[in-house]
Structures are given as structure tokens and as C-alpha cells.
Design goal:
Blueprint lengths: L1 H17 L12 H14 L4 H10 L9 H10 L2 H18 L7 E12 L16 E4 L4 E13 L4 E8 L4 H5 L11 E4 L6 H10 L3 E4 L11 H22 L11 H17 L3
Parallel strand pairs: 1-5, 5-6
Antiparallel strand pairs: 1-3, 2-3, 3-4
Length: 276
């Protein structure tokens, strides 16, 4: 636990120094400490920031403790771009350590993050639009919230991710991915990510092969042998999603949509840091 907390703080502190972000010298907690408390809460305390703050003070990781409202304000003021930059720094390490010399393999898939049960949708104040009602095909049920689309390497380490409303078309989200991968990389995906135009573009411009599972009426069917390899390799991403969602509480507590999305990002980053 001590090593994990130290690693989190060093990563946050070095990132902020590299960005040359200055803050008031009179603050009780600097930004690196605020970020550390948020990530420690995500990894050890199912996202409970108050428990994380108290633990950090009691074990002499922090000297001062902010009020609950003041801490939440400071955490939100850090901004999503900085959190995503921290994730990208970690993801770059995973890409460099990804097994495979000539052809590195990656897997693309998504998992739902409900904001509430279906029966409580009418009372939900975080999201109100119908676009957040998505469908889980494997469970044959609807959910209300976000869907996280994630690219992982063959070891199950996250490389890139985006969150979108639950009903958003997977191909539409797929087009938002940067695919900043080495040449000759092979990306597996499920049937929802079939986009011939993007496949051709990636192959021509970046020499990246996007190979999702094909639908029955597909014009680009793969051999049975390759389909078997796809199915076996994709199991790694399911393990990754299971381990990430194990960090979640039964219900993610948030007052605003921004807070809900921030907590999801913190859970993912905290999950990644344990592998460094």
C-alpha cells in the first residue's frame, strides 16, 4: 500500500512540474496531494474521498486536511485534460512494454457504467436525456448511464479510452480513437466495430490492421482459424474490465455528471498505476 501511494504521488508531482503549473504557496494541500488523495480513494476506498483524506492524515502522508466541499472543489479544478495526460503517460509505458516485436496485438471493446437502476431513471438528476439509455446485449437488458470504450494491449493494460452516452453507436465512438500505435499493430474488436472505411484508412496511413469480429453478412469474412484466435485473444479485455469494475462501489456516488465522469477516470488511472 505504501509503495502504491508513493508511486501515485511521484507521478502526479512530476507531471505537474513538467507542465509548470504554479499554485498559491499558502494552500494547505498542493495539487499533487489532491490528485493523490483522489487516486488513493479510487484504488483503496471505492472512490470515497473523505475516507481517503482521513487515512492519509492519520498515517502522516498529509499534514493538513481540507473540508469535504473544499477538497471536491480543488479536485474538480484540476481539470480532465490533466487527468487524461497522466493516463497517456502511463499508457505510453504500456505500449513500450507490450509483448511482440514485429506485430503487436491490441483489443478494443466497451463496458457499461450505469448511473442508476432502470427503475430510478425518472428520479436521476445527473443525466436526463434518452441518449444515456443503452443496451447490454450479453445480458439482454437495458442500462442508464455511460459506456466506456477502451483499447488494451495483449497483457490487458489500458492504452486509450473514451466514455460516451450508453446509446451511442460504437462505430461513431471508434472514429474518435487516435490509434497512436506502432506500425504493423493488429487491433481486435467485437462485431460492433465494423467500419470498412476506417479499416482501409488505418491500413494505408498508419499500417495498423483493424480486425473486428465479422457479422454474418460481412463482405470481409475471416478464416475460421483467425476467428478462433480473435475469440481467444479478446478474453483478455474482459478480464481487464472485470478488474476495473471490481474497484467500483455498488453505486458510484456523484452529484453532477462531471463528478460521475471524473470518478470513472480516477478508477481507470488507479487501476493502471498498479502495473508500473
Amino acid at each position: 500500500m505504501e509503495d502504491m501511494i508513493t508511486t501515485i504521488f511521484v507521478l502526479c508531482d512530476e507531471l505537474l512540474k513538467a507542465l509548470n503549473i504554479k499554485e498559491d504557496p499558502q494552500v494547505k494541500m498542493n495539487n499533487a496531494e489532491v490528485m493523490t488523495v483522489g487516486l488513493v480513494a479510487a484504488y483503496f476506498f471505492v472512490g470515497h474521498h473523505e475516507r481517503s483524506c482521513q487515512f492519509m492524515v492519520e498515517h502522516n502522508y498529509l499534514k493538513n486536511l481540507l473540508s469535504k466541499s473544499r477538497f471536491n472543489l480543488r479536485l474538480h479544478n484540476i481539470g480532465e485534460p490533466i487527468w487524461m495526460l497522466l493516463f497517456q503517460v502511463i499508457a505510453q509505458t504500456f505500449k513500450e512494454l507490450n509483448p511482440g516485436q514485429e506485430c503487436q496485438e491490441y483489443i478494443l471493446d466497451s463496458f457499461p457504467v450505469p448511473v442508476c437502476d432502470n427503475i430510478r431513471i425518472d428520479r436521476c438528476k445527473i443525466y436526463k436525456q434518452e441518449e444515456y439509455r443503452g443496451y447490454i446485449a450479453s445480458k439482454k437488458r437495458y442500462f442508464y448511464g455511460l459506456r466506456v470504450h477502451m483499447l488494451v494491449n495483449k497483457s490487458g493494460n489500458p492504452i486509450e479510452f473514451y466514455h460516451a452516452p450508453g446509446s451511442y453507436n460504437d462505430v461513431k465512438v471508434l472514429q474518435s480513437f487516435c490509434f497512436d500505435l506502432p506500425s504493423n499493430s493488429l487491433v481486435y474488436g467485437d462485431k460492433a466495430y465494423n467500419d470498412y472505411q476506417l479499416e482501409d484508412l488505418l491500413k494505408e496511413s498508419a499500417k495498423i490492421k483493424l480486425k473486428p469480429l465479422r457479422k454474418k453478412n460481412s463482405k470481409r469474412k475471416e478464416s475460421p482459424c483467425f476467428e478462433y484466435i480473435q475469440q481467444v485473444t479478446r478474453k483478455q479485455v474482459e478480464t481487464c474490465f472485470s478488474r476495473i469494475t471490481n474497484l467500483f462501489p455498488k453505486s458510484i456516488h456523484a452529484v453532477t455528471s462531471k463528478g460521475f465522469e471524473l470518478k470513472i477516470i480516477l478508477f481507470i488511472i488507479a487501476f493502471c498505476i498498479q502495473f508500473l
